[in-house]
Design a protein that fits this description.
By secondary structure, the chain is of the alpha/beta class. It has 2 domains: 139 residues, Aspartate Aminotransferase, domain 1 (Alpha-Beta Complex), CATH 3.90.1150; 235 residues, Type I PLP-dependent aspartate aminotransferase-like (Major domain) (Aspartate Aminotransferase, domain 2), CATH 3.40.640.10. Strands 2-8-7-6-5-3-4 form a 7-stranded mixed sheet, with helices on both faces. The chain has a 4-stranded antiparallel sheet with strand order 9-10-13-12, covered by helices on one side. Helix 5 links the parallel strand 3 and strand 4. The two termini are 38 Å apart. The relative contact order is 0.17. The mean pLDDT is 98.
């Protein structure tokens, strides 16, 4: 059946303002069910966890439900879902617990800086996987030379946040695991664009951020609880020493955690279906990915026919994310021009610090990023193409 785009769009109040929201790679809009869930949590009364009174019990239940929802989304174990303010903060916390002087870490120039800098700052020896600047691919073969007996962790993205490239994570993981190294997979960009199975990816750690898939600003890292038991992060002496709580510093944003659960339920319900939430998520996100890629083929073809436009990257497998420049205009000028036409896009390096340097455009302002998420429709694509054409 066709993807029910009109029904999906009707879930998002912000989409009534007349703008084409093609900035989803930086953060999505929020459906009404998520807004209501967060507001209802506050209305119901919430307290800190572990107390003897009902408001505290509600928070206990919210946390447990959120862990279960994130686990369903990525195919993980609820007991290994670490929650926090964002992926960057959690990755810094885990990097310090995993690697240090005497170790080696392998990072890639394809990645968002949040899956690079935390590892390079651990004191471990850093080895770099290079990206093909023409295709935007991350060749697997190089990892055989990069991974050795001292490799503690291999950090790699499941999808580039500017080119959309989906590297062969399982093949890289096979090399890492053969050497006894851990795989830390940044799924922040990938999770919004299709079904996720962290076990199929062979990820020891899978990181994601709810605000990239219609939720609030909450991050999560998912791992096997048994693996987490082997790690000792810095923590307060008085805070819980259990897993995954020992990785969670401070008091959680409980109402936002309720919103995360609602966001996962929203993703699971975009297309009609039955079965467990995990089964419905797989079906719904598969349909959403097909919808996005169908529209993206039109968006990409339209950009590539314009002689004044340069599109970066030609990966074989990708998300619906385009990164391009327009001759005679800075990326910021293009973004401002499109904003004047009520089309939202991003410009700049978008924290792909190493990748934009490899492409040779970081110091000149990067490029323009336009990305599709499930609520985008053909009119959004057409408005972007019409706006870019006016700059020729």
């Amino acid at each position: 059946m066709p993807f029910p785009i009109n029904a999906v769009r009707a879930c998002y109040p912000a989409l009534t303002d007349g703008y084409a929201y093609l900035d989803g790679a930086a953060g999505t809009q929020t459906p009404r069910s998520v807004i209501d869930a967060i507001a209802d949590a506050y209305r119901s009364g919430i307290g800190n966890v572990g107390g003897a009174f009902p408001a505290s019990h509600r928070s206990d239940a919210i946390v447990a439900a959120c862990r279960a929802a994130v686990a369903d989304l990525v195919g993980g174990d609820p007991g290994g879902v670490i929650l926090g303010p964002n992926m960057t903060t959690l990755t810094y916390r885990l990097a310090r617990a995993i690697a240090g002087p005497g170790d080696e870490v392998v990072v890639s120039r394809l990645d968002h800086d949040a899956n690079v800098r935390p590892w390079t700052q651990t004191g471990a020896t850093v080895r770099w996987a290079e990206v093909d600047p023409v295709t935007g691919e991350l060749p697997v073969e190089q990892y055989a030379d990069l991974i050795g007996e001292r490799t503690r962790v291999v950090a790699v993205t499941a999808a580039s946040n500017i080119l959309g490239t989906r590297p062969d994570v399982p093949a890289i993981a096979e090399l890492a695991h053969r050497a006894g190294a851990l795989m830390y997979v940044d799924g922040v960009h990938a999770t919004a664009h299709g079904p996720v199975d962290m076990r199929a990816l062979c990820a020891d750690f899978y990181a994601t951020s709810a605000y990239k898939w219609s939720g609030p600003h909450i991050g999560a890292v998912v791992a096997d609880p048994a693996l987490l038991e082997t790690l000792r992060p810095d923590k307060l002496a008085s805070s819980p020493d259990t897993v995954p709580e020992r990785f969670e510093t401070g008091t959680a944003a409980f109402a936002d955690l309720e919103g995360v659960t609602a966001a996962v339920d929203h993703l699971a319900s975009m297309v009609p279906g039955s079965g467990s939430r995990r089964e419905r998520l797989l079906a719904s996100m598969t349909a959403a990915e097909e919808h996005e890629l169908e529209l993206f083929a039109e968006l990409l073809a339209g950009l590539e026919t314009m002689p004044h436009v340069t599109v970066y990257g030609k990966p074989a497998r990708r998300t619906a994310t385009a990164y391009f420049t327009v001759a005679g205009h800075t990326p910021r000028q293009v973004a401002e021009h499109l904003a004047g036409l009520r089309v939202n896009v991003w410009n700049g390096h978008n924290y792909a610090w190493e990748l934009t340097a490899a492409l040779g455009i970081r110091d000149s302002g990067g490029a323009v990023r336009a990305g599709l998420v499930p609520y985008n429709d053909r009119s959004d694509v057409n408005r972007l193409l019409e706006g870019v054409a006016l700059l020729g």
